[in-house]
Amino acid sequence: MTSLFPAWTLEGGMERFLARIGDAATRRRIIDEVQGGREGWSRANGSVGWDDIVVSSCQNQKEFEGKTVAQIAAAMGRDPADAMMDFLRAEEGTVSIIMFMMSEANVARGIAHPQVMIGSDSLALATGQGGKPHPRTYGTFPRVLGKYVRQDKIITLADGVRKMTSMAAAKLGLSDRGVLAVGKAADITIFDAVMVGDRATFENPHQFPDGIDYVIVNGQIVVEHGVQYPVLPGQVLQR
């Protein structure tokens, strides 16, 4: 959530940031600078409304996970900008958020572009942890295969797999990954192309996808028909 604030407010670290947003005069300056008379919260790449900012995880006030800033403000009986800063202070600045500000048409255009690879841009979380994370945490790659390949036919199955595997490995300089070949590391996902798809939602993000039968890491079966085995064959990869 601190990313929503002007850079100068974060100078000197978190303690000074929290002091600034706790000071009435500085808080007024921040609101005037960022909002400029507009509803919502203005950022360099556009304005987002209070209903477009959702708390995905926090430390103390767990009842607000999954709630918008507008809903938090209503619960506090405060103006949204003031409520957001009060909430941040109560959480000591550690609040993760999801913002709804993307265009589905642009996502599809990006996925279809020949130079675009597929990545989750998500944190690595233990199952069920992290509050209400973005559903991409559980469903990025199955969503591409289910929605953009099978349903919308924006890209072919082969191209979807390539964007997730060999193209990404080559770009990152991982010479022993990304293709099925003799001498390469056996990192393999076996899925049903007719069934694969994401199940995670913003309301209920902790849901595993459909249609993935096996996950093999460095030649060892890690997941088999929904059962995860207590093995840890993964390793840190270097180019």
Describe the structure concisely for a colleague.
The chain has 239 residues and is an alpha+beta fold. The protein has helices at residues 14-22, 24-35, 69-76, 80-90, 104-112, 136-151, 157-164, 166-172; strands at residues 41-43, 46-48, 53-58, 95-99, 188-191, 212-217, 220-224, 227-228.
Structure write-up:
It is a single chain. This protein has 239 residues and is of the alpha+beta class. The protein is built from eight helices and eight strands; from the N terminus they run ααβββααβααααββββ. The protein has helices at 14-22, 24-35, 69-76, 80-90, 104-112, 136-151, 157-164, 166-172, and strands at residues 41-43, 46-48, 53-58, 95-99, 188-191, 212-217, 220-224, 227-228. A four-stranded antiparallel β-sheet has the order 5-6-7-8, with no helix packed on it. It has a two-stranded antiparallel sheet with strand order 1-2. Strand 7 and strand 8 (227-228) form a beta hairpin. Helix 7 (157-164) runs parallel beside helix 8. The protein is elongated. It starts with 13 loop residues before the first helix and ends in an 11-residue tail after the last strand.
